[in-house]
Design brief:
Chain lengths: ~400, ~400
């Protein structure tokens, strides 16, 4: 497997474009269009929030019922959530506009929105935006990169990843883009991720590969514990790599799953590391668990603990908060068996052994915790299962961003 | 029922004292002692965190096994959590010191700690503190008030409440004190609450009254979603009001439960309203629920949502975040039936009707949200159950306090 440059246009046959449609932001691109030269198998995973945004409902229908999909229209600034029947109708109008301009069926157009909840989309500007983007569609990596920038809200960095693998003698590319960076606690999250591949694969296996992979990637990140109304991951496969279509779980399928995992994990970590206002990516590994489920519960409790997150911001080795969060997670374990380590580029330090503090150096701990990527490793010594979750620190800027997000 | 001044010394026969023992804070009182002239029935509810502080384990044993209790020793600054066997031995040493000085059995001494997790108590200073407090025990309301101040950590205000009711012709007083103000998400929370009453009541009914009441009071508040290792509520009843002992659930029992509820709810709201760094008490009422459990789940999801809490800090009527939090709570409801109102001293305003925004005035909403106590009311129109939860806003100061709490 080879990591390569690029994102949604890295795979053969995918084009992208963006435009400044003036949805809510001024003077910046705020719409993106992804298009495949040929029809794609489409898979999707969506928020499990009871309150689902209109585009989520639209896409769920497409992924479930349409034979194929060929385009995705995305806007940033307004989430089109809690917008009733009008909001859903606007999804259809958006798809219809793209359908006419791209000469593809309305049912092949996926839509996604991110931003403020409760406002209606300015549908005329959305439609004008779609029409403006179609002539600009580009196969170049730069096309994907400008699209990745256009879908940002409070993100500070565009997020792309791509890899290449060999499948049955053909080079297959998997690439994607995503955006965070608040209301991030995917179950599925306001995360949106769009992954494209030129692999030929059956629709069922494409969905299964995605559904399995998000459990270890997007569903293991949290910025603030708030599961959005709009969380969407879409995966399009257009078959242009020319491999024999994957229709069973053979070695080719496994190879693709590994490539998909690298792209999704990279995008997920970029989202966590660019959480609203954050200064550090905070990774938590739980080892020695009895079951995967237990390891997931424990690691997610730690990355969502406000107190732990604030301590990470302060470069404070406040390990008691980590043990405390594990303790209220709902998982059972013996606190008096836990070992805990902090690790980063600056080194690795054991802080507690069998539940009690070692005489570690606070200066050394602070040095390790001052890096932009920090890991806590907890060994509960019950079995062999493990899990990794990703979050970020809780900062003044998180509060600032969210105290007046709408203004 | 009559609200009266005072706290733990309001009921007949209860004394309190405090001292500056130098546990961790400098130049302030940091230990408190509560003592009853006569033996008390004792009831307690404790954290359900798997990681339980040593004093929690000590008190659970006393409440379960001792025939009666007569004193409570509290220290602020160090939580005596994650301290292994040594930490538990220190509980016994503390109780033994109080036992000798007060001439009561060791098994009649409850202990409680709050502060940093993982440090050992300076046991010599704790013992000296106990000995210093015994001669200062005072029945005056001021004795209770200084004790309420001594147990504060990041609290900005001391928290007391007391009421009087008539039971079988006797005046019965119920009074208490508590402290917050971070790691507050009681299930039970680092909340500590101590309630005293001169009521005569059986041990079983005292525990039942407390266990039922905390579900609607302490367990309905959250500052940061972190359930502490030390959460403890202790209720002592010394019988000195002279009422016939309550041994069944008669009208006297109901009268006492109502009095207990007023004291506990008042203390719980004070804790939420003085959450770390907060500027407002945030109350969330869910009405029209199918069941109490559903109403509890929905209201707690809203008060623990970081995004909603940051919006309250910004006086921003960002109702989408409230609906979003309800949506990911795990409770089922129809988002398109929800009505939502904001209410405070400054007025009441309906924001959404049947899931969609009304054309309300943002200025009016901001005015209502600028008060120190703000309520959101959500009607899900499914039934008649309701619940109220209390939290606070998420502010710069919360982050500041918790980024360098230990230093």
């Amino acid at each position: 497997m080879k990591r390569i440059e690029g994102g949604v246009t890295a795979a053969v046959g995918f084009l992208a474009a963006c435009t400044a449609a003036g949805i809510k932001y001024k003077d910046r691109e705020d719409m993106a269009l992804v298009f495949s030269r040929t029809p794609c198998r489409a898979a999707g995973t969506f928020t499990r929030n009871v309150v689902k945004a209109a585009p989520v409902k639209w896409d769920q229908k497409i992924v479930r019922e349409s034979e194929y999909a060929q385009a995705i229209v995305v806007n940033a600034g307004i989430a089109n959530a809690c917008t009733g029947k009008e909001g859903f109708d606007y999804c259809r109008e958006t798809a219809r506009t793209a359908s006419a301009a791209l000469k593809i069926p309305e049912e092949a157009v996926l839509v996604a929105s991110t931003g403020v909840i409760g406002m209606q989309l300015p549908i005329d500007r959305i439609k004008a935006g779609v029409e403006a983007m179609v002539p600009c569609l580009s196969e170049a990596l730069e096309g994907g990169t400008t699209a990745a920038r256009a879908i940002m809200t409070t993100d500070t960095k565009k997020k792309e990843a791509a890899v290449q693998v060999e499948i049955s003698g053909k080079t297959v590319t998997v690439g994607g883009m995503c955006k965070g960076s608040g209301m991030i606690h995917p179950d599925m999250c306001t995360m949106l991720a769009f992954v494209t591949t030129d692999l030929a694969i059956s629709r069922e296996l494409l969905q299964e590969a995605l559904s399995n992979d998000i459990k270890d990637t997007y569903n293991m990140i949290s910025v603030d514990g708030d599961t959005s109304t709009n969380d969407t991951v879409l995966l399009l496969a257009n078959g242009m790599a020319g491999n024999p279509e994957i229709t069973e779980k053979n070695q080719d399928y496994e190879t693709f799953c590994r490539a998909l995992n690298v792209v999704n994990e990279t995008l997920a970590k970029k989202m966590a590391g660019d959480g609203e206002g954050c200064t550090a990516l905070f990774e938590v590994k739980v080892k020695g668990a009895e079951s995967k489920e237990q390891a997931v519960t424990l690691s997610k409790a730690v990355i969502t603990s406000n107190l732990t997150k604030a301590a990470i911001f302060g470069h404070d080795a406040n390990w008691g908060r980590i043990l405390c969060a594990m303790g209220y997670s709902g998982a059972q374990f013996d606190p008096e068996k836990v070992d805990l380590f902090f690790e980063s580029e600056a080194g690795r330090l054991q802080i507690i052994e069998n539940g009690v503090a070692l005489p570690y150096s606070e200066e050394e701990a602070a040095r390790i915790l001052s890096e932009p990527e920090v890991t806590a490793i907890a060994d509960v010594k019950m079995g062999n299962a493990e899990a990794t979750a990703w979050g970020c620190d809780l900062t003044f800027d998180y509060v600032k961003i969210n105290a007046d997000y709408r203004s």
